[in-house]
Amino acid sequence: MGLTEWASDHLLATVAVSLAFLTLSVVSVLGVAGWLLAAVLGLGGAGTLGSLLPLFVAGLVVGVPLSVVGLVAAAAGLASRASSAVSGTTEVAGIRLGRVASYVERENRYARMVGLADLVENFDTRSAERRADDRTERLKERYVEGEISDHEFERRLQTILDEEGVQREGVSAIDDELHATERN
């Protein structure tokens, strides 16, 4: 597991560690700056801060690189989470948009003339076969319920296959199901 995956899986811990090292870095910078200011101005606190100077330097040496790594890891983890959330949302939205466009195109000849489904195809991340299968399933349901005739079913099925650019070779599983339904 890489740093990005770990940071994405443990985002809260990554942010907490980053903030801890960032705090160490800030305290160390303030300690060194306070010592320098006290030494330059000749204040009495320079000796006390001078005894803590090695700790401040160690804090800088350790804190700055680790806070940078921690902040980069937290940013990468956050970006990874955001990317997967957006990707999933985009895929679902694309599928819904594709279904709506297919429905509108089936019901409206002007939408068919414009090629509405082709326009939103970039948003629908499903393959042409998957889109054709989904549309065929809905068509099959209408046929089984008696809403459309055999001839209308065959005509619309061919339209779906043509629109999606899918070629069916031989008898498909859907044809087998339809024939079994007809016999019952």
TrEMBL record:
<keyword id="KW-1133">Transmembrane helix</keyword>
<keyword id="KW-0472">Membrane</keyword>
<feature type="transmembrane region" description="Helical">
    <location>
        <begin position="55"/>
        <end position="79"/>
    </location>
</feature>
<feature type="transmembrane region" description="Helical">
    <location>
        <begin position="12"/>
        <end position="43"/>
    </location>
</feature>
<protein>
    <submittedName>
        <fullName>SHOCT domain-containing protein</fullName>
    </submittedName>
</protein>
<keyword id="KW-0812">Transmembrane</keyword>
